[in-house]
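Morning - heme C inputs below, output right after.
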Amino acid sequence: MTEIPEHLLKRAAERRAAMTGGGDAAAAAPAGDAPAGDAAAAPAAVEKAAGPKAPAPIPTLDDDTPPAKPDIPVVAAAKRRKRVPYWAAPIVALLPLWAFLYLYAVKPAPAGSNDPIAIGKEVYAGNCAGCHLANGDGIKGGGVGQQLTDGHVLATFADPLDMAHWIAYGADGARPNGTYGDKKRPGGVMQLLGTKMPGFAASLTPEEIAAVTIYVREELSGGNPKDDPNFNVDTFTADPEKAAAIVQQVIDLKAGGDPDTKSIDGSESKSSK
Ligand code: HEC
């Protein structure tokens, strides 16, 4: 490094101080630290440059915003009107769903409501299966209720109305001697078991009793609708109200053995009591 004469260094420092306004700090700095002195002075210079605010831009013709025109009445009214509140958005969004559910709810009942097998199956599962078992095997399968399968109920009650009466009154439909059903039942007249079957006239509708009677006869016991021409799956499906009206007449016969079901229009009139 070449030696720079002391007086030249001093002059340079003075010039620098005069230019930057840095003053003594830079002037006193030894030769080696000169760049550091410059760096310290720089921010001051920047500050100076940024100091005075730039003058506002001169307005031009393009910038000229025309004076606001008065709104026409319709627009003014629209502006005054309150906006739809933000919470209404989800409600509006869900309207189609509501419309769909509404239409679905008021739609006529689904097909199957006239089907005694569907109704009877549900009634049976909720009221009878506990004692007679789901498949109707009853005591044969370990249940406490009588067996309903393999034509058992068809043999006990040749007339479905006698069976409907039995379901309506349970063991209260037995004779004082403890027998129930057809006296000339193939295989012998039926006798009450230890458990007494409850009646369902109070807890099931006549329509439900009609349906479960048909379900047990035709689905669980293997009965043929042709053997019950006046009271079967087809007559019920065609006119559930008529089937219910028939069962209502059966219920009106009251509890007790040997109800006079033959007197009812709809009886198969072949009961061999
Ligand atoms: C608490 C148990 C119990 C319930 C619940 C019950 N049963 Fe019974 N059921 C019996 C018993 C026990 C008998 C045999 C007669 C008796 O001892 O009362 C019987 C007999 C019958 C018979 C006569 C079968 C035959 O061929 O001798 C039919 C039909 C019948 N039940 C249908 C039904 C139907 C349908 C329901 C439901 C709506 C039902 N039971 C609910 C216990 C029950």
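Note: The radius of gyration is 51 Å.

O.
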